[in-house]
Amino acid sequence: MNARQRFDEELQALSDSLIKMGETARTAIDRATTALLTGDRTLAQQVVDDDDQMDEMERNIEQTCLRLLLKQQPVARDLRKISTAIKMITDIERIGDAAADIAEISLHLTAPMFPEIQADLKAMAAATQDMASSAIAAYVKEDLELAKQTQEKDDIVDDYFLTIRAVLGEKIRTDVSLMDAALDYLMIIKYLERVGDHAENICEWVEFYKTGIRKNDRIF
Amino acid sequence: MIEMNIICAKKLCLYYRDFQALKDIDLDVPAREITALIGPSGCGKSTFLRTLNRMNDLIQGVKITGEVTYHGENIYAGQVDVTALRKSIGMVFQKPNPFPMSIYDNVAYGPKLHDNLSKAELNDLVERSLRGAALWDEVKDRLKKSALSLSGGQQQRLCIARALSVSPDVLLMDEPTSALDPASTMKIEELMGHLKQDYTVVIVTHNMQQAARISDRTAFFLTGDLVESGKTDEIFSMPKDKRTEDYITGRFG
Hints:
The complex is a heterodimer of chains A (220) and B (253).
Chain A: H1 3-38, H2 41-72, H3 76-107, H4 115-141, H5 144-152, H6 154-174, H7 179-211, E1 213-214, E2 217-218
Antiparallel strand pairs in A: 1-2
Helix pairs in contact in A: 1-2, 1-3, 1-4, 2-3, 3-7, 4-5, 4-6, 4-7, 5-7, 6-7
Chain B: E1 5-16, E2 19-30, E3 34-38, H1 45-51, E4 62-70, E5 73-74, H2 82-88, E6 89-92, H3 103-114, H4 119-132, H5 136-139, H6 152-164, E7 170-174, H7 182-195, E8 200-204, H8 208-214, E9 217-222, E10 225-231, H9 232-237, H10 242-248
Parallel strand pairs in B: 3-8, 3-9, 6-7, 7-8
Antiparallel strand pairs in B: 1-2, 1-4, 4-5, 9-10
Helix pairs in contact in B: 3-4, 3-6, 4-6, 6-7
């Protein structure tokens, strides 16, 4: 095997680890929202416990990327692939963190969910899961179109956030005793909203990998 | 008015007898920038470099069509003074080739031929040229010593000083660091960064990282064709042609 083929194998291994990390994050957010909506405490605890795995994956991928930069001094597609990986793992890890935070809150919720937000929260969770899952899929398939479609969905998540926040604000205004519960749910929707942002970032890196352009700017 | 492109090749073809080494090359060289020519061995990059100051005239059986303009004038037109051309467009080769004479005389050689200078003027010019090549401090106390006593890296900078001594405006460099150790290579690269403030530099290099580090623009040659040229940052991050991508990422060549 020549040096180039070995490098290609290392890049493939890098992609495989990134896909695995992405899948882990997607699973975490799926489980966290399911646990929240169904009140499944065991599942919530599992999400919290699994977060360490994610941190370790991030460290390993980071090391691989830095080692490849050092040894291969990559250019062109190779450079874009490795720099994309370095940036993406931060977003993937944050999705994992958000999932763990949602799970953590759902373990300590003091009041049942307000019926007024139940449908929207469910829809928001589904939209967020969909974004995270599509963003990872866009990376795996190197699908620029899917990346763009996924980015557009962030507006939907943001709209749910604003709608639910307004309801929670109203709750607090009308009955101060609901403050703690409302704040818990406010945190949850903020974490979900952040997951949407991180999914959007991942899509931007997919776009950079494919085109050299990020947020309409040439990076190099 | 600032002249953008100091040298322009237009539909340039070069044949070594029946073999076509350059095929319809169109390439502009912007003033006061470093242009790197890259490509695998035998791709035509050094041949192209040598067409820019008519060094190929010296090779038997060479035929050239198309044109190379320098400040808008075709250098292959009949009335061109080739010696004057090579004074304006100097060359530094892969292997340092100082003359077997003193350091001082190596630098003074050209000006003595071209200009009638006083001793003081000549001393001044030698110092300026050696300073320009970032060599002065290392040799100022032994100017009368043989140039061959210098290290390879110093010899190469001496050759650059020699090229600078006749006040060129373009420097052609054919793999100027491939025979040097990393420290000497770094010194030459640093020097090139300074040189481009006053000169236009065209460099052939096999070292891809060197091209990426030092050049403003890169042109990729393959089997006599100019495949792609453009801003170095773009060529090395997002090349347009798959052949460029394959070459710079080490898939062939």
